[in-house]
Design goal:
Elements: E1 2-6, H1 10-21, E2 25-29, H2 33-52, H3 58-67, E3 68-71, E4 81-84, H4 90-103, E5 109-112, H5 119-123, E6 132-137, E7 146-151, H6 157-169, E8 173-178, H7 185-201, H8 207-216, H9 223-230, H10 232-245, H11 256-264
Parallel strand pairs: 1-2, 1-4, 2-3, 4-5, 5-6, 7-8
Antiparallel strand pairs: 6-7
Residues 6-12, 30-32, 35, 85-88, 92, 96, 113-115, 137-139, 230-231, 234, 238, 270 line the site of nicotinamide-adenine-dinucleotide.
Length: 280
C-alpha cells in the first residue's frame, strides 16, 4: 500500500516516521520546500536517536529511510491512502481534498489529522464523502500511542476500519470516536489550555509557575510548554474552531494573550519563541 502524507510540519513529519517504520512506501508533500528540507533533517535525526537508544537497529533505520520520499509536486500525489496534516483551516482542507479527488482513483482513502474541524464538513467538498475519515494523531506523533479514528456522517464504516487497521499496524492504540467538536481528547483537554490562559489573564500566577505546578501534580508537561510544543497558532485555531462549534459557549473562549502571541508570530518551538524562548 502506498501512503501519501500532506504537510511536513510538526505532525506530518512524525506520522511519516511511523508510516515508513511500519514498512509503507511513503511520500511526504508540502507546498513549502523549506518545510520539506526541515522535515527531512528532523526525520533523519529522530531515526538516529531511536537507533542510539536501541529502539531500532541500523538496518531498520536504513530500511525506513529507503521507503521515504519527499516532493513539492502536487501531480505526484497519487496513492492508496492519503493523510493530510496541513493548516487547521476548513476551506484549505476542503480545497486540498477536492483537488486530490480529481487525480486519484475511487479506491483511494482520504484521511485528515484535524484536531477539531468536523469530518462531515471537510468531506462535504468531495464527490465521494464516504471515503474520508478522521485519523487524529497526538504530538509527537512518532512517540504518542493514541490515534482517534473519527467517522463523519457520510464515512463508510469499512473505510474507518481500514484506517483503524493502518494505525494499528503503525503500532498505535486506535480508538473510534464520533464526529463531535474536538472529538474526545481535545474536548476534554481544551480546558487544560483555556483555563490556564484565563488564570494567566487574571494574574493568578505566572506561566512558568503554572507549568511547574502542573508538572508537580503529575502532568508530563505544563499547559504553556505544551502549547509551545503543539504550536501556539495551531492550538489557538483549535480553540477558535471549538468555540464556534459549541455555539460560542464561554467555556471555550479563546484567549487574548494567546491571540497576541499568534499575531506576533510567537508560535512556540517552531519559531524559537512562544511563551518561552528557544534560542539555543
Ligand atoms: N501540533 C499538534 O500538536 C497537533 C496535534 C494533533 C493534530 N494536529 C493537526 O494537524 C494538522 C497540522 O498541524 P501541525 O502542527 O503539523 O502544523 P504545522 O504548521 O507544523 O505544519 C503544517 C504544514 O502544512 C503545510 N501546508 C499548509 N497548507 C498546505 C497545503 N495547502 N498543502 C500542502 N501543505 C500545506 C505548511 O507549509 C506546513 O509545513 C492541523 O490540522 C492540526 O490541527 C496538530
Amino acid at each position: 500500500m502506498k501512503v501519501v502524507i500532506i504537510g511536513s510540519g510538526v505532525m506530518g513529519s512524525g506520522i511519516a516516521i511511523e508510516s515508513v517504520r511500519a514498512g509503507y512506501t511513503t511520500l511526504l508533500f508540502d507546498i513549502n520546500s523549506d518545510a520539506l528540507t526541515k522535515a527531512e533533517s528532523y526525520i533523519h535525526k529522530q531515526l538516529e536517536k531511536a537507533q542510539s537508544i536501541g529502539k531500532i537497529t541500523e538496518e531498520a533505520r536504513l530500511a525506513a529511510l529507503k521507503l521515504l520520499q519527499f516532493t513539492d509536486q502536487f501531480s505526484e500525489l497519487k496513492a492508496d491512502f492519503i493523510l493530510e496534516a496541513i493548516v487547521e483551516k476548513l476551506p484549505v482542507k476542503q480545497d486540498l481534498f477536492a483537488r486530490l479527488e480529481s487525480q486519484n482513483s475511487s479506491d483511494c482513502i482520504f484521511a485528515t489529522n484535524t484536531s477539531s474541524i468536523p469530518i462531515t464538513q471537510i468531506a462535504s467538498s468531495l464527490k465521494h464523502p464516504e471515503r474520508l475519515v478522521g485519523v487524529h494523531f497526538f504530538n509527537p506523533a512518532h512517540i504518542m500511542k493514541l490515534v482517534e479514528i473519527i467517522s463523519g456522517a457520510a464515512t463508510d464504516e469499512k473505510i474507518a476500519e481500514k484506517a483503524f487497521n493502518w494505525a494499528t499496524k503503525l503500532g498505535k492504540t486506535a480508538v473510534y470516536a464520533k464526529d463531535a467538536p474536538g472529538f474526545i481528547v481535545n474536548r476534554v483537554a481544551r480546558h487544560f489550555y483555556v483555563e490556564s490562559l484565563k488564570a494567566l489573564e487574571e494574574q493568578v500566577g505566572d506561566f512558568e509557575q503554572m507549568d511547574r505546578l502542573m508538572r508537580a501534580t503529575g502532568f508530563k508537561m505544563g499547559p504553556f510548554e505544551l502549547m509551545d510544543l503543539i504550536g501556539v497558532e495551531t492550538n489557538y485555531s483549535v480553540t477558535q474552531s471549538m468555540f464556534e462549534q459549541f455555539q460560542y459557549d464561554s467555556k471555550f473562549r479563546p484567549s487574548r494573550i494567546q491571540k497576541q502571541k499568534v499575531d506576533a508570530g510567537f508560535h512556540g518551538r517552531k519559531t524559537k519563541k512562544g511563551f518561552y524562548n528557544y534560542d539555543a
